[in-house]
Structure formats: C-alpha cells, structure tokens
Amino acid sequence: MSALSSLDAMATAQIEHSPSPPPQPPVAQTPGPRAAQFQKLFGDALSHTLRTCSYSKFSSCFPTPAKYAPQTLTSIWQQITTKVEASAKKEFEDIMVERDVVAGLNELERLVAEAKSRRKNGVEVREPPHTLPPERLFLAHLAPYLLQTETELEGELKRLQSENEELLDGIQGQQEETEQLVGGLERFVADLERANEIMGNEVDGHGVKKEIAHIEQDFRAAGREAKL
C-alpha cells in the first residue's frame, strides 16, 4: 500500500507542476480601437446615405403633395428617414452581437500588438501544441502523408501517360501495317483476276477444256475397269 501511495503522490505532484502555459486571458467586450473605428465607419456611411435622401430630393419625386400639402409630405419624409436609420442601426447591432465582432476585433488587436512586440524584441513564440484546435493538429499530422501521396500519384500519372503514348504509337504502327497488307492483297486479287481473264481466253481459244474433259472420262473408265 505504501508503494502505491508513493506513486500516486508522485503522479499528483507531476500534474500540479506541469509546464503547461496558463490559458489565454478573456477578450474584453469593450470596443477597442479597431472595433470603435468600425462602428464609426458604419455611422458615417449611414449618415451620408441619409443626407443624400434630402427633403428637396424627396419632394421632387412628389411635386403635387409638395405643393399642396408640404407639411404632410415633410412628416412622411421624416418618418421614413427615421425608420430607415433605426432599422439600419438595429440590424447592424444584431450582426455585431451575432458575429461577436467586438471580441473578434479586440482579439485581432491583441494578436497584432503581440506580433509587433515579438518583432521588435526579436523573439519568436510558438503556440504549445496542446493549445491548438483539433483541426490544425489533424492537418499538421496529415500534411506529410498527403504530400507523399501527391508525389506518388504524380509519378504514377506520368508513368501511365508514357505507357499510353507508347500504346498509341503501337496502334498507329499496326494500323499502317494493316493498311499496307490490305493494299497488297487488293493488288494481288486484281492480278489474279487479270490472270484468270487471260487464262480463260486462252483455254477457250485452244480447246483445252474439251481435252481436259476427255482425260477425265478416260480416268473414270480406267477406274471402273480396275474395280471389275
């Protein structure tokens, strides 16, 4: 029991004295310089848009009410511009909250400040692996295998392309040989046809066909006598 207790105490001490860095400090939700500048940019753009929709431009689109009921038209114009301004600001605030823009810009401000400080001091600080998100760790372990697989696939692709080129050359050579053989056969057949025509004319001219018929009859008669 004493040995087990000692091991447990040692393990507890190692965990308590782990060199793991402390967690990152929480990001403040108060707008920093970048977030404040972003909000100011939106406000300036909205004000400029509302100024372009002045009453003079608005009333020029409705000349009759502007002439006979200017107070009513002015009230309608004020209601529209007020509604547009309030709706735009409300939607902007909803997006800021939904996307957590202030925290993101504050975090960017912090990272930029840290990068400037490291560059100024010439110190390179790397993030501990256990603080990285799972996706980055997975890609870091997978990258060498993917690079090796890509290299192997490129080599296999080049080999297949070379083999395909050789096969294509062989097929083209066989097609040429086939065309030559077909051409030779056609010439040979033409020669035979011409020879047959010549031989047919000579046989008909000298009565060789009749002589051949007599020889065949003699052979048949000799065969019947041999059987008797």
Describe what you observe in this structure.
Helix content is 83%, strand content 0%. The chain has eight helices and no strands. The radius of gyration is 50 Å and the shape is elongated.
What is the radius of gyration?
50 Å
The total count of helices amounts to 8
> Major β-sheet, in short?
none
The residue ranges in which pLDDT falls below 50 over 5 or more consecutive positions are 1-23
Question: Assembly type of the shown chains?
Answer: single chain
Count of extended strands: 0
Mean pLDDT: 76
The SSE order reads HHHHHHHH
Shape designation: elongated
Taking the alpha carbons of the first and last residues, their distance comes to: 126 Å
Strand coverage percent: under 5%
Name the structural class.
mainly alpha
